[in-house]
Design brief:
six-stranded mixed sheet; alpha/beta; HAD-SF_hydro_IIB; Cof; 30% helix; eight-stranded mixed sheet; 2 domains
Length: 277
């Protein structure tokens, strides 16, 4: 068992607070915990940058923080695009032939809903429109197409939604054998599988951000709960695994934060704010 967040007493040097969204900052029902805006204001007043680090695209993340996206950082698409105060400071592109190869396999493999991510836009097959209630939580601008074959757009990520909540099984049995040497694959919870270029993940996104800010990774606090958070948790000075995370995640954290349903991220932020006074 990880030591409690209360044992992390060296908080005064923290300059960046990065948090995953689903099952970390957000409650199980996807709701934002009450008081987030006040915490972001308090961090900003003390020179600490707040960052949402997620597999979600930038547009959805900006809409999640309507009053603060211009004052914060965003590591979107699992590190494939990075924003600071609404300025795009880094982006990565997947080779077109390669993303078509992934989409072709995903289209022909039962059980998955492939999504081609193109920064603020997403492309989904018309056959999968029935899943719009879930897809629209993450993608605000969806274009439905009869086929992916003719698409020629800049894409930084491919995602597959698994309504059967078996993303890890599909990763291990189908997609890692086909693409594991050419792309970085990671499960974003039980229902999503994400594909980025090798070397692109939340950790690389945080590295781009700290380099731009001129701060050290040792002075970053990060919060996460699942596989795609591991590259971020593994490199920062203050890594918090949520109490609701699976136990295998404890190997990638330094401290255990209260659960997402108990607003654990805000609880730790309050301690960071107090230490920064």
């Amino acid at each position: 068992m990880l030591p409690s967040y209360l044992t992390d007493t060296d908080l005064s040097s923290i300059k960046l607070v990065a948090t995953d969204m689903d099952l970390t900052l957000l409650a199980d029902d996807k709701s934002m915990p009450e008081g987030v805006d006040e915490r972001i204001d308090a961090l900003t007043e003390r020179g600490v940058v707040f960052c949402a680090a997620s597999g979600r695209p930038g547009l959805a993340l900006r809409e999640s923080f309507p009053d603060h996206h211009a004052d914060m950082a965003i590591v979107a698409d699992n590190g494939a695009s990075v924003y600071l105060r609404d300025e795009l400071i880094y982006r990565d592109l997947i080779d077109r032939d390669l993303y078509h190869e992934v989409l072709s396999l995903a289209t022909g493999t039962p059980g998955g809903v492939p999504v081609l991510c193109a920064f603020d836009d997403a492309y989904v097959l018309e056959r999968d429109r029935d899943h719009e209630d879930v897809l629209s939580i993450y993608y605000r601008s969806i274009t439905y197409v009869d086929s992916f074959d003719d698409l020629d757009v800049d894409s930084n990520k491919i995602s597959i939604y698994f309504p059967g909540w078996d993303s890890k099984k599909n990763l291990d049995e189908v997609y890692a054998p086909a693409f594991g040497t050419r792309l970085y694959l990671t499960c974003a919870g039980n229902e999503w599988l994400d594909f980025m270029n090798i070397g692109i993940d939340k950790g690389s996104g945080i590295r781009h951000l700290v380099e731009h800010l001129g701060i050290d990774l040792a002075d970053v606090a990060a919060f996460g709960d699942t596989y795609n958070d591991i590259p971020m948790l593994d490199i920062v000075g203050h890594s918090y695994v949520m109490a609701n995370a699976a136990e295998h995640m404890h190997a990638h954290g330094t401290f255990l934060a209260p659960s997402n349903n108990d607003a654990g991220v805000l609880t730790v932020i309050d301690r960071i704010v107090e230490a920064a006074k």
